[in-house]
Structure formats: C-alpha cells, structure tokens
Structure prediction request, 173 residues.
Amino acid sequence: MIHVSVNERRVVRCSAALDLKLPPLSVWGQLRDFRRYARQDLFHAAVNVEGGLPKTGAALRLSHHYCGLRVRRYGRILLWREGVGFSFSDLSFRGPRHGFPHVLTFRIEPMPNGARLQICVTGLWTAGLCPRRLAQLWLRWVFGQVVRCVRNELLIYQLWREQRPYRMSPVNS
Prediction:
C-alpha cells in the first residue's frame, strides 16, 4: 500500500512496503546496486557517486530528464548500512527551498517468510502556486512509479532464483 501526504507546511511524506518472498540478504544483494535502484525514480537519468563506491557521506551528481528538459542536481548518501539499506538526498543547485528537496530511503526488515522493503520519500513541496491536493496526486503517481519499478526488479530476480537449476542452501543465499 502506498501512502502520500502533503501537510499545510508543504512537508511531503511518501511511504510503501513491499513484502517479498526473498531472504533479506538476497534483497540487499540486489538493492546494494546503488545506481540501479537510485535510478528507479523516473526523473533520475544518471546518478554518479563520488569515488564510484556508495558509502555514507559520498557526494552524488544527479541528472534529471523529463519531457526533453535536463536538470542537474546534487545530493549525498546520508546513510549506508550493509544488509539494512540506504538513504540519499536529491537537492537543487538553486538552494534548499527550490526544486522539491527530498530524501529517498530504502530499508530492509526481516520477515518470517522473507523480507519487507520499506521505501520512503520525505521532502518539501516548493511549488507554492500548486494546490496541495494536486501536489499529492502528482507525488502519488511519481512515487507509485518508483515503487512499481523496484517491485518489478525484485520480482524478476525472485523468478530467476526460483527457476535456476542449482539452488543454494538458505544459509548461503
């Protein structure tokens, strides 16, 4: 289920949980491909990590493309915990009150029969002339696309695991 809210101060909170029939370490094995999962946002055409290795504190250069427009943005990996998840910021070069500054978080939680992946976006809606309800509808559509893309990537991986001829023991997977 997807939840999206924009409060009276224009603070944005989007959240979703994906229950997966995969071991948490297998989910992390996929999710730790930072560039791939950071690009699940339909605006993120390119994500470059300072030094090439994702880690807490690494600077990011993001390139947004949409409807022929290209916008350069920056950010930072705010949290990187092996086996658990990561958070990163996506910010405008115009300053903290422009261009929807936000943080995207992926967090894996163990479940009895697999894992739950929490996906969250928190930020500030900066398009002051846009009514909150319209902002909420737009964000629901965009965040819904992110959640669907991540879910599809992980379902493809799950199918691949189920169809491979050699299966590793659960301890090693």
About this structure: The longest helix spans residues 132-163. Residues 2-42+84-163 form a domain with the Alpha-D-Glucose-1,6-Bisphosphate; Chain A, domain 4 fold (CATH 3.30.530.20).
